[in-house]
Amino acid sequence: MSLKKNKAIIKVRKKLDSLDNRLLNLIKIRTKLVHQILQNKTSKKQIVDNARIKVILSNIKRKSLKKNIDPILTKKIWKEMIRAYIDFEYRKFKKK
Length: 96
Prior knowledge:
By secondary structure, the chain is an all-alpha fold. 79% of the residues lie in helices and 0% in strands. The chain is built from three helices and no strands. The longest helix is centred in the N-terminal third of the chain and has 37 residues, at 3-39.
């Protein structure tokens, strides 16, 4: 790889690292909000809301298309994020 291409890659990777830091801050905020919702759930059966998941994924697809973002990519990202938060809720759930 040429030195010029390598410098270009390093420059873009620095931008990605900066973006990752901003994403982490957003994930922290999202996690706090999910935890607030979890505190209002009285049973583990309330953790998975398939109707809500369907609405979220539908909205993400619509918004992705509107913003010219690959909807397959965003659907995969959101499905994994939803799975991760479901796991988080199961781990953090405390019966009242």
